[in-house]
Every structure is written in structure tokens, then in C-alpha cells.
Amino acid sequence: MYKHLIGLLCSILLSVVLATPGSALDLGRRGLLGITATPLPAGAGSIGPGVLAARVIAGSPAAQAGVVSGDVVVSVDGTPLAAVDDFLREVRVHRAGDTIRVELRRAGQSLTLAITLGAVPFETASGVDFTYDAVTTPTGLRRTIMTTPQAPAAGRRPAVLLIGGIGSYSVDYSFDPDHDVAEPYRRLLTALTRRGFVTLRVEKSGVGDSEGPPAKEVDLEGELAGYVAGLRMLKQRPEVDPERVFILGHSIGSVEAPMAAARDPVRGIVVMQGVGTTWFEYELVNVRRQLQLEGLAPAAVADRMALKEWAMHRLLIEGQPRAALLAERPAAAAMIKYPASDAYLRQVAALNLPALWAPLDLPVLVVYGNADFITGEADSRAILQNINSVHPGRGELRIIDHMDHYLTDAADQATSFKAPRAWDLTPARHPAYQTAIESVVGDWLVAQAGHSG
What we know:
This protein is an alpha/beta fold.
């Protein structure tokens, strides 16, 4: 989408269970270097390739090896770095215990360090047990993270599967507690766990510990495969009541949630900040809204919208690759900058979104925060109509004041649009998590879960 959230990680080790080491599902732990990389400042590229070590996490392997904030990372294992994606790709292929060679440039001098990667810590929270496991998909194992209340239960528990938004981000919030405020998913799922629910997250392909190609190269069906596998695993857990399993879908998760439920039935669905029209229509309305929030004059908005329509038709209808579009009209770059593959976008665009709800006769809570600039209230009302037109009374809409697309607090759409989002911001600059989402979603789930039959 036009603006995107880049996710973070957080916490330290307390109560964590792993898949049996040496088993088919033992993914191991990804390596931790401890460098936040950003593009070089304007003009800095003239002195050679590389990315900026904008932040070095205290106590990390990079810090212990002598890397400091402001260093330029020139190469990893001899591979030159032209972009941040290059840096991430070279580091993420390694597991804890691997040693990599990092070439740096500091004050005009070159130095090369051999750094042994640590293990990314496991996520923790008071009163919550974590189970790190994996599910099998056609393109490899996907990491799963399950939370369970530590408080004793009278019987099997209700459960929730999270299907998050578009993009290549981790849902394993495993280190750097200073950035705690930046993890709305983690905070919401922790709150639900403390109310008695088991929750499950599935890492996307090639993200975190997961195997497979990078998430941005996977199509919609490939991404959905991980969620469906997670849903089936959740139902098979001995602590979970398979008749009381729910899906919580956010953003594009509002599209994937009914698709997953059609393949494996659930008790109910919650969708937050979702899309209910056609994808093509949604994109046009979304971009117009953001251009207006940017303050462009009407004539400039009209010009940009004409370019957006051209790019969308070529990409989604005619099926032309993005590279061909950019070669023909470079100005269209911002209009087709998605953190997803061309195939993924075309599959979403081909869906009849209202029809996804037709086979699902189940309760659905539609949640909309009225400070969201990425979707509008009309999108959520469209989802509600899609549900209630075929299953009267099964859908319910709740509007949360001052909540934006990222489940954080904002006075209105304009405030959210202008808010800083970079993951390495200090906590004081991050928008605050909107805690109202916890009671809205939690109360509804508790009421719908009832008691085990």
C-alpha cells in the first residue's frame, strides 16, 4: 500500500518450549548480528557501495566485535552491498553460531571483522508460555509461535490464529524491549492470551526462522498455505478446543481470513482495517485519499490518479511485469511500489471479495479505527454488507475512535499519515498503541467462545 509499516522485534528468555531438537520441524534459530542498516545518506554513495550501520544493538555480536553506529557496511562474506535488501539477504541465510566476514568503512579506512552470530532471543511475557514450532508448506517449513496462558484451565481452551497485513516482516518480537510500543500484534495477542486464549502466529516464507523464498516473491496461495497449515496445527493441539478456534485478520488478512476459513472451518472471524470492495477499486480510493492528505492541489491529484489507473490496469489486468511499466513510465514507480510479488497482487485483484463471505455462516466482528488513512470506513461497511447480505445478522461493526491502520493512537487520518514509522525510532517518537482494541476484540471473542461443549 502507499505507506507501509515496518515491523520490529522484542524481549528476553523466560518460559519457552521448542520443537524437539533434531526433529523434522527443528528450524534452529536465525543468527543475530545486531546492526540496523539504512541506505547511505545522499551523496555518501560517491565514496563507494555499502549501507549505513545506523544503529548497533548494545551487547550484540556486532557491538562486541567493535562495530559502531555510523560505520558503513561495505560487504558481507565478500558480497558487495548496494542496498539494505542485499545486507538483509546476506545475513539472514545464516544461523546462530555461524561466523561471517563483515567489511566496514570508518573515517575513510577499511577494516574487516569476523563476527560469530548469536541466536535471536525468544519472545517472553509475564503470565504467558511460548511454544516455538513449525508447520510444513510446499516451499518449506514456516516458523510458528504459540502463546498459552500460564494460569490453569478447567478444560481445553479457545484459540486465535493471527493473519497479518501485507509485507515482509517478522511476527517474532524477540528482542530490543525499548521498542515494545511498536508491536501492536504482540500486545494484542498477549492481552488475548491473558484472557484465556491460545494464540498462534505463522512467520511468512523466508522471514525470521522460516525456510523458503523471500516473502515478497511468494504469491497469495503460497502465503495462505502457511496460515491454513497453522490453523490445522492449532486445532490439533491438546490444549485447544478445535470447536472454538477463531481467525483474527488485519488489513490484507481481512481477505485471507475468509479464504482460510473456507478451507478449514472456524468458530468465528475478526477482521480489522480491512477491504470489502474490489482490490482495483480499493487501490484507487486509497491512493486518492493519501494524495489529498499529502496536500496536493486537485489538478495534481488528477494527474497522479491518471497515472495510477494506467499502472494498475497494466499490472493487474494486462499482467505486465513492473519492470516493463517502469521502463515505459518511470514516474509510475511510487504507484506500483508494493512489498509483494506481481503474482500475489494479480491473485488478490482477481478475487471477488464479497463472494468470499458467501459460504461462511459464522459470526464476524468487523473493526475499524477512524484514524486509518490506508482504509476508509466505507471499506469496513462494505465487508459488513458482504456478510449480512448473505447471512443476515452475522456481521457486527465496531468503530474505535483515534485508532489508525497500525492499531496505534492518532487524532485523525492526517495525524496518522504524517506520523514517523521507521522501526529504529526512539520509543518517545512512536505513536502509542491503541489499547481500546484489546477490549473490543477480547470482549467479543470471550462472548463468542462461550464454553467447551
